[in-house]
């Protein structure tokens, strides 16, 4: 076994699933006996659905998804008055992706990821925790414990992935700090069942009759089941009263479920580094952001998508270890942008008292840039001379520059996105590249829109990584040697 993934939430399970997909199934340990019993994060963005499609689970996710529109409001109670209509429908990204939005909670998503990871050969051990670890020159020695039998085992691995959530014992042990605005609030909540008129909604509550004066009420993907959360003020909670206040239905008789999610923290902070020698941070271990915006769960999955191919290629001997050094510079600046944007939404939706903070970031515009226009510029990409290094671009006007997600172009048979995900792919109008001896899939495309959106001539080419990021581009014709040099540089392979 060459990689140990610690944590079986969205980030750990997707790391394991995508690693297994790339032919390097890891060992994963999760201290809980099962996947999450709480709905927690819900909603999958189109770019996440594209990644899930690569693993062959998108159809399953779609069938598990609730249908219909998801309404987001800020209100005194679900029954009103509504203070702000935040979103009645998901933004239309159909010009940027053929993938749909989906609406599946963590409770249903995790088993889908776990089943697929197992099917592809990953060794998932629930009810097993990481007890201690030590890094050395050749790898990581980790002690894991089966919590049922109390048996301990020492495993030797090349690399370890810290997918161990917001408390991240691994991050603490490594002495890695979260940099940001810190703790913004403590919350507590419960699930309940009731017959409410509105079916799919997220309602940010501002109501002096709630503990702390604020809360959140959200539907789950189980019909008739809802989650309510309020500030974690002192004293026991009268959940029936809280639910009546939150729904605005004074005589509601909710069935409060014995599945509290305990206390949770709203926090803004990004780890000061995403790796420490042979250990890599993903998901909430790497960043904490207010849940406003739903990037937490989605980014946890995309962290797995982003690091899995690198770990797989390095451990399979197909890339040099330097490839892994790109994890921090590629994921950390993006995390900072996301955490700041979610903080901005948090001030607008839940904490208007912070809305005049002069240090608030500007909203990213267009918002599609956060999903499709981010550039990863960290070593596993060959930037072009004169590239100003901007981290976001408008995906409606793509440049095709290295570091950006490969722009979506509809083709006569499908789209460019259909061609990506399993390995390195060269998209080009030039059939001469088909003779390459490199392990790269070459697709010759003869569509003017493709050349425009990738910023290349018909003789040019774009080399796309398994995570859809353009690693290198040649605007005009390039020699086979130039392509090979680029490929070797990206993969940290000696000539
Ligand atoms: C109530 C609630 C509602 C939320 N709602 C949303 C939402 O609507 N949208 C959104 O985007 N995000 C939401 N989030 C945040 C979202 O759930 C997280 O961003 C996401 O789960 C992060 O996934 P993760 O895999 O990094 O961490 P987690 O899902 O926390 O998984 C980490 C796992 O590591 C395990 N672990 C820790 N230490 C060890 C150890 N030593 N050995 C073995 N296992 C260990 C833990 O048991 C845990 O299962 C919500 C969170 C909560 C709590």
TrEMBL record:
Its cofactor is FAD. It holds the Pfam family FAD_binding_3. One of its GO terms (molecular function) is FAD binding. Keywords: FAD, Flavoprotein. Residues 2-340 form the FAD-binding domain. Residues 384-403 are annotated as: Disordered. This is 2-polyprenyl-6-methoxyphenol hydroxylase-like FAD-dependent oxidoreductase. It comes from Kutzneria kofuensis. The lineage of its organism: Bacteria, Bacillati, Actinomycetota, Actinomycetes, Pseudonocardiales.
